Amino acid sequence: MEHISDSDVERKLQPGVTGNVLASEIDEALAPLINVRDTGRFLSVLEALQCTLAISRRPSGVALLGVENGIPTLSACVLPRSMGLAVTESRLAIATVRELMIFANVSSLAPKYPLRPDYYDAVFVPRISHFTGDLDLHDMAFDKQVVLAVNTRYSCISVIDGYFNFTPIWQPPFVTGFGPDDRCHLNGMAFHEGKVRYATALGHTDEPFGWRKNMAHGGIVMEVPSGRIVAEGLSMPHSPRLIHGALYVLEGGRGHVLKIDPKTGLKTVVTALPGFAHGLAEYGGVLFIGLSKLREKRGPQELPIETQRDRLVAGVAAVDLASGALLGILDFYNGVDEIFDVQVMPGIRRAEILNPQQWAGTPSIVTMRGGFWQTQSREKDEEDAAGRR
């Protein structure tokens, strides 16, 4: 992988603007800048892999991050309380506070995007919105034409397909009730080869919001569908993933990436990171991990990572899968307090994403017979046609 000669690269990016944006090129009056700092080789690693990261961030919104010529390219759109993400080759699902939105990549039209022609290799536009209600959706995955989602508020894994607000298909066997009372804070699932294999929760409890009593050390990893507990005593586990046949889990309360033996429960620390770990994706032998600062409004929670509170960062880390070595961290200095989820989009380097309001201003129309961008209203089209007669 190419190495960046300057190991401490700093860039300033403007939310909602895509491209190679440096501080000197931005009108300071338009919007506050997002300051990002590459402490290591994060940008060179991402560029070598020729992919884009979809990042769900807080306070709110989703960012698509790529790299071109060593400089980050960023497209960001504001959405209400963005949470879990799921990706396929041509689709991006985003959970928000009361909706699950599915965006489509209009790749054939991307080079013709009127606001910046001959630049983008992907433009994601809104296609479907499922009105789910407040479910607190965490990990998600596409299962053919439907979305599977960890429905944290209802303590279950659900299908989101539009027939109901959601259809529960699995819940931990120790959870006996059904309702919006978040009994164990079920939050993560490892979806692999068409099946949910493992799930994480912050507590082995059957009381409404009972997980809060021991959230610092009560986390578990379960096998699905049996519900067998394969590991326990974890500090806020999230984002279980099966990678090359091995089970990886983020232990947010310690900032650890763990490798867990499902048969013995043996836990091995792959690496320790300077942030609350939440959101994990692997591509090309590299782990991308979301990092967050602690939520000050909650006060002390007795998490082991709280001893490092002043040194925690919000950003994304790149870790070598084989060795556990930290390759670099893209540190968000401002504008981002938490990273909720991270997904990889292979083969995309310059992406744009339009929220419903942005898309309504410049809508794309795609059919089996082709597509085009609508750049003016029907009334204007009629006036132009009349003028040509």
3D structure, described in words:
By secondary structure, the protein is mainly beta. It has a single domain (8-388), classed as TolB, C-terminal domain (Neuraminidase, 6 Propeller), CATH 2.120.10. Helix content is 6%, strand content 46%. It has three helices and 29 strands. The strands form seven sheets. A six-stranded antiparallel beta sheet has the order 1-2-25-24-23-22, covered by helices on one side. The chain has a five-stranded mixed beta sheet with strand order 6-7-8-9-27, with no helix packed on it. A hairpin with a 2-residue loop joins strand 28 and strand 29 (370-373). The chain is globular. The chain starts with 7 loop residues before the first strand and ends with a helix.
Write a compact overview of the structure shown.
6% of the residues lie in helices and 46% in strands. The chain is mainly beta and 389 residues long. The strands form seven sheets. The protein has a six-stranded antiparallel sheet with strand order 1-2-25-24-23-22, with helices on one face. A five-stranded mixed sheet has the order 6-7-8-9-27, with no helix packed on it. Strands 5-4-3-26 form a four-stranded antiparallel sheet.
